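Appendix B. One record, verbatim.
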Amino acid sequence: MKRLILAGLFAVVGGLASAQDSIKLAVTTSFHNSGLSEVLLPEIANDLGFDVQLLVVGTGQALKLGEAGDVDAILVHSRAAEEAFVADGFGTHRREIMYNDFVVIGPADDPAGVQEVPTAAAALQAIAGARATFVSRGDDSGTHKKELSLWSAAGLDAGAFDGWYRAVGAGMGAALNTASGMNAYIMSDRASWLNFGNKGDLALLFAGDPVLFNQYAYLPVNPTRHPHVKNDLVMQLEGWLTSPRAATLINSYTINGETLFTFNAGE
């Protein structure tokens, strides 16, 4: 099992919360790498009076943690997998919270000519045609699932790629670091890219195709299947995440004047 990164235990006013006053939330590495969790978690603790412990993993691993009842809720970004999670009885429902988009990052001199193409499919075809080094998350995350679906839509089989395609089995930040070191192409969520400090010679080369839409959703783990989950606190957190208070914090979170997420829980 990949190492879990435990992040962000914040004390409530008046002292540290007890174990009964905290919940475990599995979240994607892209959400954590964006820096938004550092904004939201202290406000949640202040407003709701309990702590949220983040288990930072890829979407696939987050769903497995939910299936096993090892977390109380999950916040991920792979709609088909999320809907299957609920349909199979592991989650009570799926609530959309916010979105951003995926982008194609690559060498600033763009040897594959990605900046010149009109669609995401054409961007990937250009990279494959040039056999330009491409770093894949390769970790069953929401970003990895999306990347594989885009290769397929482009008429290409990522499983058949050879040495130019590098699957690293890592989170978004680590994968971006690898791409920076190799001066390679990579697909990233926009928020992680904007918050990434080791850009090297990489640049954002392609964005804007509607297929790159990236929705994040909140899924409570089913208390009927796992009676120990703290459903009352989970529902309080959902109420907060879908509130005007959360909307203001999410929509106002920017880096260098660029918005990283757009709240859409009320839509």
